[in-house]
Amino acid sequence: MSLRIDQDHARFRAIVRGKIRQNLRKYISQGELLGRKGKDIVSIPIPQIDIPRFRYGDKQTGGAGQGEGEPGDPVGGGEEQEGEGGKKAGKDAGEHVLEVDVSLDELAQILGEELALPNIENKGKSKLINAKDRYTGIRRVGPESLRHFKRTYREALKRQVATGTYDPHNPMIVPIHDDRRYRSWKTETEPVANAVIIYMMDVSGSMGDEQKEIVRIESFWIDTWLRSQYKGLESRYIIHDATAREVDRDTFFHTRESGGTMISSAYKLAAKMIEDDYPPSEWNIYPFHFSDGDNWSMDDTLQCVELMKQQILPAVNVFAYGQVESPYGSGQFIKDLREHFGGDERVLTSEIRDKDAIVGSIKDFLGKGK
């Protein structure tokens, strides 16, 4: 029975996985997948999966086929019934939506399969050490919780056969103290690949709620994929208009600002953050910058180029710039980056016209496997 249940559950999970993959691009572009999110799982609304349920009736109400009426009469009477809220019952089928919990690791795997994302090439090892206990052998002493029952049984059987006390007609094996065997372990340490994402976003007056929603959705999927590639992943958040400051995640996605834009202020803060906290030999570093392409002046753009060449690019795995289309933004900055870094594989640029372009943008950023 247990095996049958496991098989049914596995088939159901396969159906759910197929539904998610089938609708993944829609979920990404519309943000429908970002429902209730826990620490390691997301709750996903999956349409058109009907789960049968049996409901027991009240006692003393009769059994199957009992009660008033004649064969062929509609169940519940032939008249229209009033539904909840005073609305009459309709004749069309309703939409059945089931919420299922999916781990972020599984979600990342589906994303990787659908977009054909390569695994990340780890650039370096962190100083952080991960310790694991591995069971490597057998010994004669140890806690009872680690007793190896098969080895203990085997030793007792060998002893009884050797001493002539084993009776094949009454094969009772009673281990004594000297027969007991215990699992032994060894603690192994290994460096943990560590990564940090430094998100930067323009929050000047030209970046509206729609543009920030696009950034929120795309950053969720970037986070999900990179967390599947690294055991330790930190996220830092920088917002900027004419000046830059570090904020928490909630502030990053919900800040309303106005004023001009000086992109170099964010790049200076990111460069200092890397220098102070993330040695390139030990960290995989991913700066992601989102803006609508406006900058205060060409002089500030040239300053951004120098900051990237001298401080940022030598330290990072890749530098990703996503330009979110806005009716108020000029869209010039991505052209300047492509002019100065067109042949540099470390600089990834993507134009995000609307939510439908998020899938392509994720592929632009993560498709290199760096």
Tell me the count of domains. 3
Q: Please report the total strand number as a whole number.
A: 10
Q: Characterize the biggest β-sheet.
A: 6 strands, mixed
Strand content: 15-25%
Structural class: alpha/beta
**Uncertain spans, ≥5 residues at pLDDT below 50?**
47-52, 93-97
Query: C-alpha Rg, in Å?
Result: 31 Å
Tally of individual helices: 10
Query: Percentage of helical residues?
Result: 25-40%
CATH architecture of the largest domain: 3-Layer(aba) Sandwich
Annotated CATH homologous superfamily of the largest domain: von Willebrand factor, type A domain
The CATH top-level class label of the largest domain: Alpha Beta
Enter the CATH topology name of the largest domain: Rossmann fold
The chain-level mean pLDDT equals 78
Task: Trace the largest sheet across and list its strands.
Answer: 7-6-5-8-9-10
Overall shape: flat
List the helices and strands and how they pair.
Blueprint: H1 2-22, H2 24-30, E1 41-47, E2 97-103, H3 104-115, E3 129-139, H4 149-163, E4 182-191, E5 194-202, H5 209-229, E6 232-240, E7 244-247, H6 249-254, H7 263-277, E8 284-291, H8 298-312, E9 319-324, H9 333-341, E10 347-352, H10 358-366
Parallel strand pairs: 5-6, 5-8, 8-9, 9-10
Antiparallel strand pairs: 1-2, 3-4, 6-7
Helix pairs in contact: 3-5, 5-10, 7-8
Describe this protein's structure.
With 370 residues, the protein is of the alpha/beta class. It has three domains: 1-51 and 96-116, no CATH class; 129-189, no CATH class; 194-366, Rossmann fold (3-Layer(aba) Sandwich), CATH 3.40.50. The chain is built from ten helices and ten strands. Strands 7-6-5-8-9-10 form a six-stranded mixed β-sheet, with helices on both faces. Helix 3 (104-115) packs across helix 5, helix 5 (209-229) packs parallel to helix 10 and helix 7 (263-277) packs parallel to helix 8 (298-312). It starts with a helix and ends with a helix.
